[in-house]
From TrEMBL:
Natural source organism: Amphimedon queenslandica (Sponge)
Taxonomic lineage of the native organism: Eukaryota, Metazoa, Porifera, Demospongiae, Heteroscleromorpha
Molecular function as annotated in GO: protein dimerization activity
Name this protein carries in UniProt: TTF-type domain-containing protein
Domain TTF-type stretches: 5-91
Amino acid sequence: MYGSVKRSFQERWYHLFPWLEYSIERDCVYCFPCRFFGVNTDRCLSYQGYSDWKHALGKIGTLTTHDSSVKHKEATLTWKQYQSTIAHDTSIANQLERGRLKTIQENREYVKYILEVILLCAQQGIALRGHREVNDSEKSTNIGNFLSLVQLHSRHIDLLRERLETGPKNASLLGHHYQNSMLSVLAESVLEYIISEVKSARYYTIIVDETKDVSKKEQLTLVLRYVLEGVVYERFVSYTYCEELNAAALTSYIYKALDSVHLDIQECVSQCYDGASVMSGAYSGVKARIQQDNPRAIYIHCHAHQLNLALVDSCRSLSHASDFFSLIESLYVFISSSVPHSLFLTKQKELGQKEITLVKLSDTRWSCRHASIKAIKTTLPALLATLEDIADESGSRAIESRGLLHQAHSFPFILSLILFEKIFSVTGNLSNLLQAEQLNYAGAAACIRATKQTLQNLRSEEKWLEIWKETVELGTKLNIAVSPIRCRRRQRLPSHLSNCTVEGPTGVTNTISEYRTLAYYATIDTLLDEMNKRFNELNLTLLQSLQALVPTSDNFLDLASLHPFLSHYSIDKDGLASELSVATTLLKETSPLSTLHHVYSHLYQVKECFPHLLQVLQIAMTIGVTSASAERSFSSLKRLKTHLRSTMSQERLNNVSLLHIERDLSNKLWHNLDDIVLKFADAHKNSRVTLK
């Protein structure tokens, strides 16, 4: 005690004795250098601690005398030397460690440069390898895009240039095995992201199709459709080489692909394929086999395929339509040859038209008919002029041109041209809508009904007269007079029926009525009939109940209407009933909603209040509509596996395809290449290049 005040440690002592350290818990001081660097020093300040504040300072104070002691000065000197060693890092061990860390950092940067080139090539669909992969332009004139880009980078990056010029050849990481490994690590990162999203979404749809690649191998593509936070995604997963094409084998390929990414088939809510019997067979098809394991996975016949089949079948069943499209195909073949095509382009220039080439017809390309008709209608004056010029020549080409000109320069042809252009513009819009990734089943059903109603509205006298007027005006410009429609030759009655009255077709004298009945109405009626047959599944009770989720329907959020859907997917009806009443009131207070997606987005903001209803909406949005995403993956397959890359391995094909098709996800890898390098290091722990 000093008077009435208790003595204690003073903060200013730190300035008097920089070596001092104070323990609040024990209320005593220590000498830092003596504790850690001293030999035979004062035990009080080194181990026990000093707290006699009364005798701490002064000429004979403990702290003062300790500061001037020999042992303390030796300990302080050792401490300062240690600090200097750490600051300048002069020890051999530290220098070796620093060198090792520097080498690792340089190796990682080197691998990042290589990864950047590989990722760029994969995203752009560029082949990596060349004719002879030798990193020496004198030994090979075509070392490939990968090595060429690496050499280009080395001109501007010192580290890369030094490695290529002076580094060990067996540690360059430029060989095709390392290319495959890096592609695998990059693709796995994308696939992991996709599967993590699918598992977060829980429910998914499998979209499957198969095609033959350039090496004549059957490739089965697997696409997953899922809904995450109200957004619909359709993601490519893999190609599978199919050695067999029967239903059992295809089913096993699908299961194997799902097992490889650890997805449970029980969470699959629908399966979407084309109409091939091996896929859609009711008893032993792929869809039936999957439904044996998961009855909830309903089968959806790709709507885009169904629409295309309706168009193909309706055109084949009508003689005038079949003749019209046969003529269009003949015109395409004739004009596509070198001499007529050159003349055709010249005629377009002379008439001041933009150069347009004709489009080939195909039963499997969904939009080719409308595009082909539109091209011929736009270039018809130049087309007829080309045929006329060639017809004036001699030889087989001239003979063929005269025949085509005779058929194309006719009133039935230009009427069919305008008629089918009008009809296919309507169905073309539907085809484009059906291929949209965000479209759900209820929305697709609404689009189909609207299209059928639009076609039905075309079947009127008013619309017919508009088409007739346009045809007559076009005929006048092209000097084509109105002529009767070609009818079948009337059959001559047998002699034994000469005295009998036989009912049969009579010649129609009214040309307008003749075209209207036999061409216009017949085409629309046949197409509507085909669409009704193809889309009959829209009447199924389960799928019809989806309309109760569309805000514009009369039974919106009606529990009874949703009953088939709820029973099929085992959704708690009691829990949903209370949510429906609240949701109905809530949605009435908001701005008018028109789609299922709008309902989901609005309710997702208060998702804790509507777990069952959001589950219903999510499943409804997850149900597939078309296999368009699978078809689009085939377009990528054609770009990636060309005749020059026909020997590409299946694993490499899948890795490149993932990075190329799912480019929005692979773009994220550019910001995470450090993590990719570490994954590559884990996969190559015995590599000559140290990365960890």
